What we know:
This protein is an alpha+beta fold. Helix content is 18%, strand content 41%.
Amino acid sequence: MHIQWIIWPSAFLLLLAMSPAFGWRCEHGLVNIGDSASQVRKKCGLPDYVYSDTGTFKRGKFVAIDARWYYNDGPRLLLRELRFHKGKLAAVDTPGYGFRPDQKRCTPQDINTGMSAYELASRCGKPNSERDRDTHIRGGKASGGKLMMHSEEWTYDFGPQYLLQKVTIVSGHVQDRKAVSRTKHPAKRPP
């Protein structure tokens, strides 16, 4: 038996197994690591959701350096998360199966650690309030501003039968969910 009959099929299978790490085939072509955001948009169309998670503060405004684009083709196919750094495709991930955004079903128990901000917003709608949390310095100066990790706190009110839900979003994913009382301050007792 010739060794080439073993090597070529093995190399082909290895290439197939590695291909998701290097790119993704979408409707109008293959996108590869290093492609610009405009090239990806041309080949794959507009993303279903965009989340900006790292950037700099210039003149008091947050300017995104890193972004995550989500493409959702439904519950039978994998959700695609494309991560960009400085406008170039840096990684393609598949964080699980897609979902039907038109099926709005959400209770506090449906919010899970690790779910994407896109899935949370699609399933539960817009939060009652959003606020930027303290951002974390990731190191040094970049483009005239400190490099920061963007994090947010989304608050949901599912009605009087539930406590308010404060959801912490970091890097485009739910990091934590806490149930909090509806009253901000305890009632003061008369003297």
